[in-house]
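worker-03 picked up job from queue 'complexes'. Input manifest follows; two sequence lines, order preserved.
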Amino acid sequence: MTYRYEKNVQTMNRASKVIPSGVYGHLGPAEGCMIPSSAYPNFITHAKGSEMWDVDGNRFIDFMCGYGPNVTGYCDPDVDAAAQKQIALGNCTTLPSHVMVDFAELLTDLVHKDWAFFCKNGGDVTSFAIMISRYYTGKKKIIFVNNYYHGVAPWTQHPDTPGTLYDDCKNALYVNWNDVEGLKKTIEENKEDIACFIATPYMHGNFVDNELPAEGYWQAVRKLCTDNGIILIVDDIRAGFRLSLEGSDTYFGFEADLITFCKALANGYNVSALCGKDFLKSAASTVPYTGSYWMSAVPFAAGIANLTKLKENNACAHFEAMGKRLTDGLLKTAGELDVPLIVSGPPALFYMRIEDEIGNFLLHQEWVAECVKRGVFITNHHNHFLNLSMTPELIDEAIEICSEGMKVMVNNHPEVFKK
Amino acid sequence: MSEKAKAFVNFYAAIGALEQYVELDAKAKEIASKQDIAVRFNVKNGPDGVVLFKDGRVKVMPYEGTPVDINLYMSSPEKFNAVVDGTGMPFPKKGLFKTLAFMGKPTSPFSLLTDEMARLMRLTEFEGYEQKKLSTILAFNAMAAAIAEVGNHDEIARYSMERILDGEISIEIRDVCSVTLLKKDGKLTCIKKKSERPRAIMMFDSIDTAQGLISGELDSMSCVSAGTVITKGHMLMLENVNKILNIVPKYLA
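worker-03 finished. Artifact:
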């Protein structure tokens, strides 16, 4: 018996009348990670821990975690209690609460940086990092790594993106992941005009197998940036606090000049942070940048409780163990059914793909749809996330459901799976 | 807007829709069946193609050296676009009298066909479902052909075209018609038949959805959310096709 979504459809019909796309952006079905859209719910009523329930009452074990923010668990009692306590004391006030300082001290100590600047979303801090780099260096070009994602601001886009101008993109340079020689060449060709190099700590692009840094890659990048006066920015918005609580630059054995955090910072309370080294602190003070809610105290209090809980519970080891338990189970089923399932990226942020002859992902999308319709929320072409509330029992249940989904997919395609 | 890209769209998408028009409309087929003629449109710095009328069918294709009855030369894409808009005249290098007979006045066969087809494609209110269906199929084929031409020739759209991986993309109106966009050798080609090995699929669930999207009454993101546009396969290929599609209306308007 698979799920039905009558109320989801009704709600989406209402939504489409008053909200662009019904659900816009990365949580919406038009973004390309929920295929076919008919296999997916659109709206929930509530969530707890690692589970969520849609408006039709269907239960899902959730491996997307709100695309990252759910890191201690939905409605975590400790994080929510800290937030509730702060609500009673004041949130968006004329002067910032002292908890902002507490949070900055905790964060900078944890990730080995000298200062922290708080905003709301990932795009706020990646944009600020670029502005600081340009101001400090007096240069304008940005080196991107192909298959990157650093938000949706025009400087992150290509000229063919609706709403973006050709001029918004003319200072972009592109290199391939793990390609030190290509980076050297790009720097040589643009030596006098490069402000910064921005990259995620490993390649977790969508639609591609995720790729870890090659041995010595980050150390070589660090040296090239230092030697050429280029600011090294690590976009740790997706991977931050899932590989290491000390920042992913520390995890991979190098030091970024600027590092951005957001998703896992406060378990869903809205705060992002740019952390940096001392030599850029004056630039961060000088570049004008602010927002109405950027100093709200509730997310700071939640962030303190969240990071403290992650630290006390050795969270990253748990994410890795749960991710490995799940992917090992799925690979075992795939092996038994002769399904060429490929798992890439770190177990805490695993990415999956079923290989096919044409490279059209149709078998993979069909399998994922069968999983979702049976209660495991995964997406087609995005990495997944684990959280602290995930249990071995839930993982085993997910393996059972996904294995059943894989058998259905295999049975639907005798032309491919001949056994 | 690039005049060169517009010239390619005018030839392969607008005039190209004649292929479907004479196939699907009885009156058009009757007019076409009386013609046996090959017309070359030779546009300097633009398309160099042939419109072939034979056995009641029309084929619009690149010129590859085969003999033609009429050879129309235009010294620039702007001149060709003016001809298509009805504000300019081509220069017949060959077949002056045939040109006058075939397309020299509003009642000439080519003029009759293109004028009526353009009227049909621009309709927003219809006499019935069959007319709506015909109008939508013609506009759908023109749109698909325009994706290839705009992708290949518009400066901004080329960014998207270059990022489309090699392979076939199927664009369909469910149970009505299909076209294939082929990315190969650094360019897009529109093939007016169903793809056998698509890497990505975009399917409109009905004539109504296709008509609404083509006319601009509906937006594609909302249709994907509502499930009336079904997308599957390699979504990055479709994402880039959609970016080109966003640019197509300014050329097809």
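worker-03 released lock.
The radius of gyration of chain B is 18 Å.
Chain B has a mean pLDDT of 91.
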